[in-house]
Design a protein that fits this description.
The protein is an alpha/beta fold. It has one domain: Vaccinia Virus protein VP39 (Rossmann fold), CATH 3.40.50.150. Helices cover about 30% and strands about 35% of the residues. A 7-stranded mixed β-sheet has the order 3-2-1-4-5-9-8, sandwiched between helices. A two-stranded antiparallel sheet has the order 6-7. Helix 3 runs parallel beside helix 4 and helix 6 packs across helix 7. The termini are far apart. The relative contact order is 0.17. It binds S-adenosylmethionine (SAM).
């Protein structure tokens, strides 16, 4: 994935600019509206510094995680107020209960789906009680797809929406919003499951 996103960085950005009906601004606002200024936020698979990354860094203490050196160089230039680390999101570690929110836009469909239960468990563990997880998940029943995409080698994998839901609930999340959204990619429509989930705060 790292080599692929290093190689396609400009192609990816040009391609993503052509997407329409992307609800990311609205979902990001749903997250940021629930966080206090200075909250500790992680963005997994942050890419080269999107408008959402800039928005998150404006109000919160943001750490972006990505595997691609080229994307990270661009993100550091565009978003100097955030910290960016080169890590595989399936291996990165944060202290238990140390994070207020985790965001992952359009990246978890690049992770082998068998790793999602463990990853959701880790995200839940990193979050403080009442912490939030915002993500856009793939919904096709795809065990593993390897091939060329935007001129570079790429990997896709995802579960159907019902299984994503079960796994998130199984990790301990309450789903505050859970919607299937179709965006228009240059090649045609593509469906994603947007989820805003919370880690239950202790009673009393
Ligand atoms: C489709 S892009 C999305 C970028 C950004 N989140 C956005 O919404 O525009 C996926 C990003 O995730 C990164 N990525 C893919 N697999 C990763 C992994 N296992 N760990 C960390 N980053 C990963 C890629 O390098 C790329 O920057």
């Amino acid at each position: 994935m790292a080599a692929g996103y290093d190689a396609m960085i400009d192609t990816w950005e040009s391609w993503s600019c052509l997407i329409t009906d992307d609800p990311r601004d609205e979902w990001c606002a749903a997250l940021t509206g629930r966080l206090a200024p200075g909250a500790r936020v992680i963005e997994l698979g942050c890419g080269g510094g999107t408008a959402e990354t800039i928005q998150l860094a404006r109000w919160f203490r943001l750490t972006g995680v990505d595997l691609s050196d080229a994307q990270l160089r661009r993100a550091r230039r565009r978003v100097p107020g955030a910290v960016f680390i080169r890590e595989d999101l399936t291996e990165v570690v944060f202290d238990a209960g140390s994070i207020d929110a985790v965001a992952a836009f359009y990246v978890l469909n690049h992770v082998p789906r068998d790793l999602l239960p463990g990853l959701f468990g880790c995200v839940h563990d990193w979050l403080a009680p009442g912490g939030l997880f915002l993500t856009a998940l793939g919904v096709s029943d795809t065990p593993a797809w390897t091939g060329e995409w935007l001129g570079a080698p790429t990997f896709f994998s995802s579960y159907p929406a019902g299984r994503n839901r079960e796994l998130l609930r199984g990790a301990g999340f309450e789903l505050l919003r859970d919607e299937l959204v179709t965006i228009q990619e240059p090649e045609g429509p593509a469906e994603f499951q947007w989820v805003l989930a919370s880690k239950a705060a202790p009673c009393g």
